[in-house]
Amino acid sequence: MKYFLAIKQDKGQGMVEFALVFPIFILIILFIIEVGWMSYQQTVFDQSYQYSSWSVQASDFGDSDPMDTCPAKDVYSGNTVSDPLVERIKEASFWGFLPENLTVSDAQAVMENKEVTFSVPGRTPGDTVTAISRTRYMDLKATLSYDIYPLTFLGRQVFGSKVTKKKKLSCSRTVATQHRSE
After folding, report:
1. Which ranges in the chain belong to alpha helices (H)?
2. pLDDT tens digits, residue range 154-179?
3. What is the distance, to the nearest Å, from the Cα of residue 100 to the centroid of all Cα atoms in its chain?
4. Residue 57 pairs with which residues in a beta bridge?
5. 96-145 residue pLDDT tens
6. Which of 62, 64, 80, 173 is the most exposed place for a label (fewest CB within 10 A)?
């Protein structure tokens, strides 16, 4: 008889343990999901930022300098620069990247021609000819901000209503090179 009483008293014990552990388990799962989402969003933003800094071209800004004059300098700013940057970022983005959360500010592209003069051997032995090498450089600068919104109530409690990641884009590259001899 004592055996049957002991069984009846132990039946609810598993339910009490489950009720105590289950909320903690759910919180841990939600936290893992939230940290994974935030990390994924940051990684996608970083990858898109890098792609845009590599792939944007001078022609995206409307630059078509034939490099006839040197020194020549053209400055592009505002939407002329930010719109092509946003388009390049959209091209590179993966699933889950939200372009409407992206803000581009202080965007500026400076195109500059630089000239170097040097001597090259001529057609006859001992003869030298003056040669000119013109190179067009592009200096691109912008500030990119990406807002990441938490998925769950736990994420909003831990991280706040949004997390803003900022990147300073600053790259220089050669756009075109031209060599001429007289």
Report:
1. 2-10, 13-55, 79-92, 153-159
2. 888 888 999 999 999 888 888 888 88
3. 14
4. none
5. 788 888 898 898 988 888 888 888 888 888 888 888 888 889 999 999 99
6. 64
Which residue pairs, CB below 8 angstroms and at least 24 apart, start in 57-60? 57/175, 58/109, 58/111, 58/136, 58/138, 58/175, 58/176, 60/84, 60/87, 60/88
Instruction: Report the amino acid identity of residue 107.
Output: A
Check if the beta carbon of residue 70 is closer than 8 Å to that of residue 98: no
Average pLDDT of the chain to the nearest whole number: 85
Give the Cα separation of 5 and 11 in Å (integer): 11
Burial 35-66 (b: 16+ CB within 10 A, else e): eebbeebeebbeebbeebbeebebebbebebe
Q: What gap in Å lies between CA 51 and CA 126, rounded to an integer?
A: 49
Q: How far apart are CA 75 and CA 58, in angstroms?
A: 11
